[in-house]
Design a protein that fits this description.
By secondary structure, the chain is mainly β. The chain contains 7 helices and 36 strands.
Length: 591
């Protein structure tokens, strides 16, 4: 029996009650999920035939699809042992009394008795009206006993909520927050985090519950972690499977979490108009809120035969991930972009299906941003989020080169009907101080431009948004069409006023005309006054009789300077001094 599994009669009755009280039809149209066994129905049955005839079935895989995972203990001994680990114990050996490490993925629980690394709430509504959803229950899942004092997260099943705001088939939503980590006696290292919100419809089901186990490697020479997840079920109880639905248009969702401060840095995701806020709880944990609109993500499945459909874009089998009949490429990867572009003619530039998705996923620390890696590498706080609805996208922090932040996206031009154009979204929200670090700017306001550039260099974008508020810089581009595109963000900052000064070479005798060296000094000074507003010229004299000639010298200096920067307000004056070294000199100051 799966650790923590809900197999009691009481649990079964509760699960059935969820179905009966939801008022949901068993004939609802579910959201498209490629790994659902029903994928090979008459509509897509040709894929099955093609696969059996030796064609590759290529899948561009979306992130955070799974809502069930587990934790394992592994040893360094030979032969290595791998065991399920529901309770790591104080020694972090899962009761095995053998050295090794604990690693895996937990589904974070709802905050209740657990107060760290947990889901704290869900709001659903529109951009003008959000309402808190009611927490109902935690779905079936692998129960892992954490230790918040050392940053080790607890694990359970996905959190089920009910909202007054309905989706395409009902009002239940699931928040699945997954945290991957590695731990031993030296400490706990979280290295990947995702949170996804699913609209769901619970139905009566005879499917067995998802299971975690240990199985042999394909070569039979070792052990590995195994998850038997029922892909069609977003959550399960005995006798119940909740099927994914789509969000209705103009929905906005906010998820509140309590997270380890180690879950920080950058996030990517599937959101439109995202907003993030972080407030500390302790030196180890923070409250994190993420809100945004779900986006329509075009999906792609295609068959491919090398030589018949083109050159070998798939690569050797051992270079790719596989799941059942599928050769899998991640949507958030440069390889995904390559595959999308390579299949464009095969699929007639048309997506296979569309999902509405609300999701964010952490970006690992080694995915830094080119020349700006030093500015983007801070892991002590949340730095920013980059989101898009592109079929495939870079998946890293935007790359800084040639004076702009670059992000590559790719997708088919048409929706599944082959006629409707896919319209792209791109959002970048980053801390203002990070943006200034990238460009070496001061704290003064910045401005930005956004371009969406195609392979032939054309710019196609219908809407751009740029604003800076509460320490965050927000940029967005909406309404561009797809092929392969590059989103370019360029930040600029107006020159800031600064105080500069120069002492001209000494005038001799009764001379009042500027020398070439004096003019050069004035020119050098004026070149630094683009953002300044005022300038002054002060001529010094020792003898009272030289006051008039000093005034002429000061005026001559200011007149020449004003010709170089007429926008400044100039004043000239003569000043008597007892310092003989200043006699016959003119000082210029601007700020």
């Amino acid at each position: 029996m799966q650790p923590g599994g809900i197999r009691s009669t009481l649990a079964t009755l509760f699960a059935v009650a969820l179905v009966l009280t939801s008022g949901i039809s068993a004939q609802a149209t579910d959201a498209w999920r490629v790994k659902d066994p029903n994928f090979f129905n008459p509509k897509f049955g040709a894929f099955n035939v093609d696969y059996n005839n030796g064609r590759d079935i290529i899948l561009i895989e979306e992130e955070a699809e799974r809502t069930f995972d587990a934790v394992y203990h592994e040893t360094q001994a030979v032969p290595q042992t791998v065991t399920l680990c529901p309770d790591p114990g104080q020694a972090l050996d899962c009761g095995t009394s053998t050295s090794g490490w604990v690693s895996g993925t937990v589904v974070l629980p709802f905050c209740g008795e657990v107060v760290e690394n947990c889901v704290n709430g869900l709001e659903v509504g529109t951009s003008t009206s959000m309402e808190a959803a009611s927490y109902l229950k935690t779905g079936y899942g692998f129960q892992f006993k954490g230790n918040p004092a050392i940053g080790l997260p607890n694990g359970s099943g996905p959190s089920i909520f009910e909202s007054n705001f309905k989706h395409t088939d009902g009002n239940q939503y699931v928040v699945a927050a997954l945290l991957r980590f590695w731990a031993d006696q030296r400490g706990v290292t979280p290295y990947d985090f995702s949170v996804r919100v699913f609209p769901v419809s619970p139905r009566s089901s005879t499917l067995p519950l998802s299971e975690a186990s240990v199985c042999e490697t394909p070569d039979g020479k070792g052990l590995r972690q195994c998850i038997d997840h029922k892909d069609e079920c977003i959550y399960q109880f005995e006798g119940v499977c909740a099927y994914a639905q789509d969000f209705v248009p103009n929905t906005r969702v906010k998820v509140a979490l309590k997270l380890s401060n180690n879950v920080s840095g950058w996030f990517r995701g599937r959101l439109k108009d995202p907003s993030i806020s972080v407030s500390p709880i302790t030196n180890m944990y923070s409250n994190v809120e993420v809100s945004g609109e779900p986006v329509e993500v075009p999906r792609l499945v295609s068959t491919y035969v090398v030589g018949q459909d083109g050159p070998n874009i798939v690569g050797a089998p051992n270079e790719n991930a596989h799941g059942g009949p599928f050769t899998i490429f991640k949507s958030a990867s440069a390889r995904g972009i390559e595959i999308v572009n390579g299949l464009r003619d095969v699929v007639k530039d048309t997506a296979t299906a569309v999902n509405t998705v609300w999701m964010i996923n952490s970006i690992t620390a080694d995915q830094a941003a080119g020349n700006a890696s030093g500015c983007f590498a801070d892991r002590s706080r949340l730095l920013g989020i980059v989101t898009t609805n592109a079929m495939a996208y870079t998946g890293t922090v935007p790359d800084y080169s040639n004076g702009y932040l670059s992000y590559r996206v790719a997708g088919m031009h048409y929706m599944p009907d082959g006629k409707t154009e896919v319209l792209g979204t791109y959002d970048l929200v980053m801390r203002s101080d990070v943006a200034r670090c990238v460009y070496g700017f001061s704290k003064a306001p910045v401005s930005a431009t956004i371009q969406v550039v195609g392979t032939s260099g054309e710019e196609k974008v219908s809407t751009t948004i740029v604003n800076e508020r509460d320490g965050w810089l927000k940029l967005a581009a909406y309404g561009f069409t797809f092929s392969e595109k590059e989103v370019r963000v360029t930040l600029t900052q107006a020159p800031q006023p600064k105080k500069v000064s120069a002492n001209l070479a000494k005038f001799s005798g009764k001379v009042t005309k500027l020398s070439s060296s004096q003019r050069s000094a004035i020119e050098s000074l004026m070149s630094q006054t683009e953002a300044n507003s005022v300038a002054s010229c002060t001529a010094y004299f020792v003898k009272a009789a030289d006051k008039k000639i000093a005034e002429v010298r000061a005026k001559a200096a200011c007149t020449y300077a004003q010709g170089l920067n007429p926008k400044l307000t100039f004043t000239s004056s003569a000043k008597q001094t007892k310092t003989k070294s200043l006699d016959g000199r003119v000082s210029l100051v601007s700020q």
